Amino acid sequence: MISKNVLVRKSVTAAIAVLSVASMAGLAPTAASAAPAATGLISIDAEHTSPATLNHNKRVAVRVLTQLFEAGNLAVANEYVRADLIQHSPVIADGRTGLKAFVQESRQLHPDQTYAVTRVIAQGNLVLVHANPIHEPGTRGTAVMTILRFDDAGKIAEYWDTVQDVPATTVNGNDMFGTVSNPETNQPSGPSKQTAFSQEVVTSYFNTLLVEKNPDAVDYLTPEFYQHNPVSPSGSAGLREQFAQFFQAFPDTIAELNSVIAEKDYVAIHFRYRLSPAERGQSIMGIFRVTKQTSGEYKIIEHWDVHQEIPATSANDNTMF
To answer: Which of 122, 148, 280, 296 has an alpha carbon within 20 to 30 A of 49's alpha carbon?
Structure first.
């Protein structure tokens, strides 16, 4: 007989893995303490952000992260990061000084670390960077998704991330970074007008599955549905029944959406997931790829995500959200 703990982990992974679709209050000190409620989605002024600004923000995001974590160039923080940076990573202190101190310590421990960026998605004043930092040559490293909020002057004002170790093998045979669906590009592709359709599909999927707890959400997935979560198989067959069993076993689950970043056929989301109100839960960032079917419908064809348990303490006074 499968233990309840194993069932919990497999069920949570299955529900969230196909899904990966708060605020600035203090972290709950223990798993049994009630955490503050989320204040809603991060505001995105997408309508008033020009393509030139989006491209600038994407270039800056990649430059800052690679220069800091791979080259150890602290000067880039002085140039592009606000002194009063709001930090949500639980291992980094607030402010530009906190970020620089963390980078210095990281570089001292891992002088040969690399920071391979896989995909970058931008909308409004937010940029998500999906990367594979490797601390020691020859190791698999971690999967990291980082969200950066830019101010009107083009400087980084706020920082969120979610980190997960890369396993040796995956159930689906796909790694946590590559692209399997066509076209095989890691960057957003297709017409800009698809952005609205992609965002609608992914947010509807999130609300139907995790908020309404309705297994019919699988209708938003293509039959092949390529999965990059290392412990979940590809394909949407059988998921309806799996979700139904999960919500029967865990009826008190809570999903709180923190941000949505959509660009063409890619949609990135950040949310908090808990099995019950008493748990700290997980910070989850995910990316969905949306494709247009021959019928004219838009459906989700591919998915990547990163999961991290929310710790009891943090290096700053903000939550991970």
So the answer is: 296
Tokens of 105: 């310590």
Backbone angles phi, psi at 252, to 5 degrees: -105, 20
Question: In the numeric block, which tokens belong to residue 262?
Answer: 């959509």
| CA–CA separation, 19 and 8 (whole Å) | 16
138-144 CB contacts, 8 Å cutoff, 24+ apart: 140/165, 140/166, 140/167, 140/168, 141/166, 142/166, 143/176, 143/177, 143/306, 144/306
- Angle (CA) 241 206 238, round 5°: 20
Predicted confidence (pLDDT) per residue in 164-198, tens digit: 999 999 999 999 999 999 999 999 999 999 999 99
